[in-house]
Amino acid sequence: MLNASLTIALEPHYGPRSLSERLFKYSLAVQPQGPLKRTVLYFDYNATSPLHPIARQAWLEISDKHWQNPSSLFPEAAVARVLLEDNRDVLADLLGCEPQRIVFTSGATEANNAIAAFLFQTSHRDATVAISAIEHPCVLDPFHHFFGNRVRELPVNVSGTVCLESIESLLATSNPVLLSVMAANNETGVIQPWENILDLCRQRGISFHTDAAQWIGKLPIQGLGACDWVTGSAHKFGGPKGVGFLVIPENTRSFHSQRGGPQENRSRGGTEDLASITAMVAVLVHLQNQGAPCAQDETGARHRRSLAFGRDAGEARLCELLPGVIPLGQHSERLWNTLAVLVPQVENIRLVAQLGREGIACSTGSACSSSSGTPSAVLTAMGIDSSQARHLIRLSGGWETAPSEWIEAVEKLSIAATQCLAVAPRVALGPQGS
Ligand code: PLP
Known about the structure:
- The chain is of the alpha/beta class.
- It has helices spanning about 20-30, 55-65, 75-95, 110-120, 135-145, 165-175, 195-205, 275-290, 300-320, 350-355, 365-370, 375-380, 385-390, 405-425; strands at about 40, 100-105, 130, 150-155, 180, 205-210, 230-235, 245, 325, 340, 360, 390-395.
- It is about 40% helix and about 10% strand.
- The strands form 3 sheets. Strands 2-8-7-6-5-3-4 form a 7-stranded mixed sheet, with helices on both faces. It has a 3-stranded antiparallel sheet with strand order 9-10-12. It has a two-stranded parallel ribbon with strand order 1-11.
- Helix 5 (about 135-145) links the parallel strand 3 (about 130) and strand 4 (about 150-155).
- The site of pyridoxal-5'-phosphate has 13 residues, from helix 4.
């Protein structure tokens, strides 16, 4: 239930930051009347998040009142156009870049594909690209498709962090047209040193891309705009599915995320989804507000620490209950919401199914790789072989997940693992996997 008092007044004049104020109004006026009613404990936020009430309200309001095509020429459509550009201004301000660098897309997959296609079309035939071995398939696949054996993969250490030394030695001997390293990994939650990598790229004049789909909404985003290319996806932080954005380098000519009409400054043909874009920006503004998890200030940092406390408590309890489990990325800096563990001897697909019956929604890793049956590139890069990868369980909580919910989830996980083992009684969980 939402507070019904929210309205956006349609003033006849719009200043360049007027939407920012209105979006701020969303975050003040729309307060859920109680905790979201959940029939299951949802621990799959890295796959997708429920629509935030602020996003929902913004989406409804724009769909009701500003459904006109922003490219049409009559006055109401001009209002939609102004709102669209206001959204761009607000997002640019949050990221720390020029508004004209932002292209609204259908999500991170489209954005990442578009970068690979654009670089392939505009670079010389021997050009190489360097991408980390733990990228999401929507980065790995298009770059391999377009660049084939001209892709240089950057290794990670056993904790899942991209090695700066390997980047330094690669850049000492080659000159890729792009270096791409994600900001935070979707499977392990391990945070990548993208700021250091950006510096290395800057020193050598190499274009840098970060897929920030898992970072945005969980950590402060100011400064991401310094990267040449940035991808984001609304449904990872409470926005609607099917909307996201791409930051492109300044003065990029003839970039097309998709061809067609002249929308998005000629960078992406197709009528803009103003309702979804507004919903995405509204929730992002809300998450950056003072004290919210993405706020740059000390209150934001405190909020993130308290969210990580729940995850850490869950992790500690799980290790106590099942001493043989192996948490991944435990010695690296991780997103506050992610717990990826290997549960030896228990088939992850069966465990996830059993947990589903117990009311816990979680996953066997990335939503994209869980249906393919092949071990994810992330685990392979971390030196985990395919037989071990079958034991990976990922719990990813959200902004409202309480420590008690983490404890409940891992206690149910422990019971479910024991039940799965009871079906195959030859093995038991123990410190040595005995
Ligand atoms: N990049 C990362 C790191 C992701 O985790 C995901 C989602 O799983 C994507 C890209 C794809 O995002 P979208 O669903 O917006 O295409």
